Amino acid sequence: MVAFVIRRLLQSVLVMLAVALIAFTMFRFIGDPVNSMLPENATAEDRQTLRENLGLDQPVTVQFTRFVSGVAKGEFGISYRNKRPVAEMIAERLPATLELVLAAAVFALLLGVPIGIYTALHPKGVLSNILNIGSLIGISVPTFVTGILLILIFSVWLNWLPSFGRGETVQIGWWSTGFLTVSGLKSLILPAIMLGLFQVTLIMRLVRAEMMEVLRSDFVRFAKARGLTNRAVNFGHALGNTLMPVITIVGLQLGSMIAFAIITETVFQWPGMGLLFIQAVSFADIPVMSAYLVLVALVFVAINMIVDLLYFAIDPRLSVRA
Amino acid sequence: MALEVFPQSRIAAILKSDIFYRFRTSYVTVAAAIVTLCIVMAALLAPWIAPHDPFDVSTLSLWDSELPPVWVEGGDPRFLLGTDNQGRDVLSAILYGSRISLAVGFVSVALAMVIGIVVGLVSGYFGGMVDAFFMRIADVMLSFPTILVALLVSGIARGALPREMHDSAALIVLVFAITVTTWVQYARTVRSSTMVERGREYVFAAQLVGRRPLAILFRHILPNVMGPVLVIATINLAMAILIEATLSFLGVGMPPTNPSLGTLIRVGNEYLFSGIWWVVIFPSLTLVALVLAVNLLGDWLRDALNPKLR
Amino acid sequence: MTAQSKTSPLLSVRDLSICFDTRHGPLRAVDGITFDLAPGEILGMVGESGAGKSLTGTAITGLLERPGRIDRGEIRFEGQRIDNLPAEAMRRLRGRKIGAIFQDPLTSLNPLMTVGQQLIQTIRTHMNLSREAARRRAIEFLGEVGIPAPDARIDQYPHQFSGGMRQRVVIALALCAEPSLVIADEPTTALDVSIQAQILDLLKRMCREHGAAVILVTHDMGVIAETADRVAVMYSGRVVEIGPVEKVVRAPHHPYTKGLMQSIPRIGSNAERLTQIDGAMPRLTALPTGCAFHPRCPKAFDACRSTKPVAVPVEGGAVACHLYQGEPV
Per the CB < 8 Å rule, is A229 touching C125? Predict the structure, then answer.
């Protein structure tokens, strides 16, 4: 167990170093940081001072070491566009994105798992067919189209729910939450549905496929042959074994939901990291882009580790072997 | 989507029988094929069949702006699907927009396929350092969502280009970003198929006869690994169109002066609250129909070519 | 069949047919088989894979899944028809009256539940026992099937048991609600040869002690010869010969059974080489007319190619072959 965790940690550190290298390369070699940071009319002297301040006159390896240690301390440099520390900008935006992703993930699980189980247990049912076709359409509809439709129906035509922003937020330390106000929660509904809907179809298809596979397995047949009730077979024996791989995928999906939040945040003008990132891309604001990249990679690596460790907690086969 | 490795030599036989049996017997697939064909034809023939030229400013008139579709009260028979705020015909804009969306889709799929096949063949056949190098890259890329990689690549490409070139080079940047993002899947699949084929007798025989590795790769192995590649290509066409639309929607793709379907949706979205829904809904529907139809074709192709699922 | 007709049979299968509905029309996988099983008796069912022996077992447990279905005949258990029972009534019968053991002990147990949980669940489904009483019964059964230190091992997971031990657990699971019939489908095929005999002995002893009859499905004639009282030989979905084991082994009637017996190596036999039956069993999609065995049969004549033989009684059993039609041996 300990050996496994250490190996996993080392692997994660390596991935993070690779990502840091990409981020550094972006920062150092794409465009000229000095030109991007100084006004057009800066003197040659100003340039030289900045160059020295940034350490650009030193060997590349030294620069990379400085970059990595900076990143480790949470320093990502100054935004070209806003002239503000990137770390500060991201810290402001982080809560909005994480709350959105959390709400969407809960929504997706609450809807996707039961639907998946239902369609697996009644594969020939009319409702199952409708749900299956729905999921196929769901996978093909771009999320931004879903978002636009949601806004058109629930904001423009019905005028029930707000279509942009987070509503009122409450500040708890440095964290700003929208969970505690009515307008914050109302604002969360549509973006969470938009971000979660694609995951619903994904989770549902995954649960269905896994469950149908498990239902065909020998131990389920043997459980049936022992006369156990359908309930005991389906939920006691099959479901547990179905959820093992589902946990992995859903865990990994959390990471990609942070990435997909870019689109949701654009549609709903949600003040999160994604919106910050997309603005950075369109203005080629490299420090913000590289900071976002490092951060998202960190989240991915962390989730990967947690998922692996969760397996130990759930699967008795692993806890003994290790 | 994991694709199983299977003996490709069967493809010819399958083409003759089951594949078309399945095609004929699946109404959904036939419908998908028809929809795809219609959109592709309409896009190809846009300059001839579009009722207006949306880019010819001289024909635009503000008198015609924000007209609803014909079947809605106030509609004008000249503009079947209504007009936008500048008096541009929505139908014509969609026809020209699909042209760009499809062009980006086809070109990037073709490029990604060629790169992926070459890398996959070389990695799978020679193994060793080359293989390890490419597969580590693939691992890293596949562990991030496609859209994020595409955004990053296009962001980097934009960073490397001077600002004034962003619009004119948009098409190339898009194709580049999508290609870089998607070649990995082909490489992975071709590599694993190649590693299987490499152990087959016919390859051994070709080696004994003294054929050069390149000849063996392209003349002997390649035809046998094309099946899964075709499936991926079809599914990736849908994905490429989707990525392009998403990037354009996010404002880092095609500029409004030369709009793709995604750009049209982005522009239309800004007028959502003034109630002119048709400007955003019709491009969206076209995009959904196209992506759904191509996805269905890909699903059918995968099922038909994969004997394991039968 | 005469030997068993004195007592009323535990299980009686009459003209049972199972077919699969496919794109190309229905395929008949089991074609009109008939046999009886007395209480406590062990009946071996032997045949090549695809002969329909496992399907017959599955049909008796009521676990046949679409596209497979029973399209003719009936199955009676303790005098009651069970082939058309409602699902819920059939479920109550399974485990309680009819137990089943499958081929692979490695995959027959739920990996995420302890063996105790699985035993207790099964016991409590069929018997009105408290959790403690069910647990005591589970420990008792684990002891009976030869698991050492059952009170400690009951809380372990399947992966902590070896293959042979797991098959012992499976036997305990199949018998823990005291069924009067156990269908054992290739119970030892997946095990090491060294363990096979132990498991067969255990199965035999457990069933004798708990008064359960057994249908032992296997392709291994050796297993049948050592374990079963009677044997039914299946070929292409039909029972070609049925009778007491020693009779069928020593003096087989049907040419297929004869071929089968000659292909078993025997100590003390002076044959220089084993004979084998030429060809392979026909596929369901291409069944020959008449007797399905005729293309491989050394004694085939005209009648074999045109009409299906019906079963005729021969000393203590029955055989379906034109060689014996109309002339009781």
Answer: yes
Mean pLDDT of C103-113: 84
Our measurement of the distance from residue B17's CA atom to the centroid of its chain's CA atoms, rounded to an integer in Å, reads 28
Class of domain A89-282: mainly alpha
Q: Are C209 and C220 in contact (CB under 8 A)?
A: no
Question: Taking CB atoms and an 8 Å limit, are B288 and A259 in contact across chains?
Answer: no
Contact assignment for B145 to A15 by CB distance below 8 Å: no
pLDDT in tens, A74-95: 777 777 777 788 888 888 888 8
pTM: predicted TM-score of the whole model, two decimal places: 0.75
Tell me whether residues A222 and C95 touch, CB distance under 8 A.
no
Q: A318: burial class by Cβ within 10 Å (0-12, 13-18, 19+)?
A: middle
B207 CA to chain A: closest CA distance, Å?
A: 39
Cis amide leading into C67 (omega within 30): yes
Backbone angles phi, psi at A250, to 5 degrees: -65, -40
Nearest CA in chain B to A149: B281
Given an 8 Å threshold on Cβ–Cβ distance, is C100 in contact with A222? Answer: yes
Helix H segments across A216-285?
A: 218-225, 230-231, 239-267, 273-282
CA distance C271 to C290: 33
Asked if residues C211 and C99 have their Cβ atoms less than 8 Å apart, the reply is no
Instruction: Look up residue B279 and give its DSSP letter.
Output: H
Does A26 sit within 8 Å of B272, measured CB to CB?
no
How many domains would you assign to chain B? 1
Task: Supply the angle between the helices A286-314 and B146-160 in degrees, to the nearest 10.
Answer: 160
Decide if B26 touches A, using CB distance below 8 A: no
Which of C296, C299, C301, C319 shows the shortest CA–CA distance to C309?
A: C319
Question: Does the CB of A14 have a partner CB in chain B at under 8 Å?
Answer: no
What would the DSSP string read from start to end of B149-207? HHHHHHHHHHHHS-GGGTTTTHHHHHHHHHHHHHHHHHHHHHHHHHHHHHTSHHHHHHH
| Secondary structure element (H or E) that encloses residue C240, with its range | strand C238-244
DSSP C24-77: TEEEEEEEEEEEEE-TT-EEEEE--TTSSHHHHHHHHHT---TTEEEEEEEEEE
Supply the pLDDT for residue A166.
82
Min Cα distance C108 → chain A (Å) is 4
Q: Mutate which of A226, A229, A311 to disrupt the C interface (most C C-beta within 10 Å)?
A: A226
Q: How far is A128 from chain B (nearest CA, A)?
A: 17
CATH of the domain at B99: 1.10.3720.10
Choose the closest CB to B265 out of A145, A260, A300.
A145
| One-letter identity of residue A151 | I
Q: Where are the beta strands (DSSP E) in C157-237?
A: 181-185, 213-218, 230-235
The shortest CB-CB distance from B246 to any of A26, A137, A144 is to: A144
Q: What is the ipTM of this complex?
A: 0.85
Q: Within its chain, how far is the Cα of A273 from the centroid? A: 11
- Paired with C254 in beta bridges are none
| Chains touching A (3+ CB pairs < 8 Å) | B, C
Residues with Cβ within 8 Å of B14's Cβ and at least 6 positions away in sequence, in order, are B304, B305, B307
Contact B287 A145 (CB under 8 A): yes
Domain boundaries, chain A: 2-72, 89-282
- Residue ranges in chain B modelled with pLDDT below 70: 1-25, 56-64, 70, 75, 79, 306-310
Range of the structural domain that residue B76 is part of:
2-309
